[in-house]
Amino acid sequence: MTRLLAIVSAFTVLGLCAAPAAESEKSAAPRINAACSIHLGWQAPASEWFYLEARVEKSTPGSYFMVCGWNTGYFGVQELGGGRKVAIFSVWDPTKGDNPEHVKLEDRVEVLHEGKDVKVSRFGGEGTGGKSMTEFPWKLGEKIRCIVQAKVEDGKTAYSGWLWQPRSNEWKHLVTFRVQTGGKPLSGLYSFVEDFRRDGKSVGEERRAVFGNGWVKTVDKGMVPLAQARFTASKAPTEARDIVDAGQAEGGLYLANGGKVSPSVPVGTVLNVNPPPLTVPNDLPAELFKP
Length: 291
Description:
Layout: E1 34-35, E2 38-42, E3 47-58, E4 63-70, E5 73-79, E6 85-92, E7 110-114, E8 119-123, E9 129-135, E10 143-153, E11 156-165, E12 170-180, E13 190-195, E14 207-218, E15 223-225, E16 228-233, E17 239-240, E18 244-249, E19 252-257, E20 270-272
Parallel strand pairs: 1-17
Antiparallel strand pairs: 2-13, 2-16, 3-10, 3-14, 4-5, 4-13, 5-6, 6-9, 7-12, 8-9, 10-11, 11-12, 14-15, 14-19, 16-20, 18-19
């Protein structure tokens, strides 16, 4: 996951092939090795928490379906190899660089809560920060429910990740990370689908998910449904930009990439959820409504 994935995936730096003096200069064409990362940028005000549901309809090993993303972190589910499936919640440090050991202690993401069977660690290579992972055997067609809660504490913000457990019918508090933000709430909300296997073959395998029934609690305490999102795509030269799609689906908006997918709307289109969410779920964690 790259820090700028809500806008573009990280560019691969390619060298230029030196042409003979008698020939015109030509750039080496990049090899396409991955399906294009695609996103839904939700139109929402600054908020205290962000609730969204997802339904994965097509997947393949090396896929990430990020449900709740914001300007300093991301939360969603992955399919790894060998049938293993997990949930991941991560928050970036407020610093530049890819080496987690080079970040000063006072600038690092703090861990305030670590749920049972949740593994918390530092990450690097794509910016740096705190990462949490837990086994989560999600299934195709099954509803995935995620919540990101943000509590401003002076110049920092504490981000909590909540994941619905369909087997036990309860919410699980996975982790709470706190980081320096200047005291900012949630903003820049988005969802995405990513091919992180990037082996060339993954381009020919389809991923598809539907995102919907989204709600935010604004900083003014009002409840606002997520009714619009902008469809965007990575500009990375190694990703197949023509094999992407987005649009309306039962229960929300879908994203699809890879395989035989073809565009039905241009990248940049603002999509409306039709019908928009009407009722806030009545089983959300009580902690979301505490002062």
